[in-house]
Specification:
mainly alpha, single chain, 137 residues, 0% strand
Amino acid sequence: MKTGLLAFFAGALFGIGLSVSQMVNPNKVLAFLDVAGNWDPSLAFVMIGALGVTLISFRIILKRPTPLWDKRFRLPERTTIDTPLIAGSMLFGIGWGISGYCPGPALASLGFVWIEPVVMVASIIAGMLVHERLFSK
């Protein structure tokens, strides 16, 4: 129960941060991605801030022998750059560029009761189901 509440509050804080930074606004995101046109660099500051927080907090957290509420850290074990990683990254970028949403902001935008994030989240779920069906072992 304690972990669930912490996850809820962490997710709510993340959603609030996405809203405040306007990363849930697809027009703002698309303007950021339009580097050859009417480019809006403001989201770069959001990303730089997030990168700074991550770099500092990971250095502190990973010095601990274990996480606070688990027996071990669960970090990625694969480090190879292969075709599925590149293809998945390309699909992610294409989806982000077309819709203006990446998964986190799409989920946060569901609270606004707009149709676009509903379609985006449904597409993400459909993609995960297709991937599971085609590539599960």
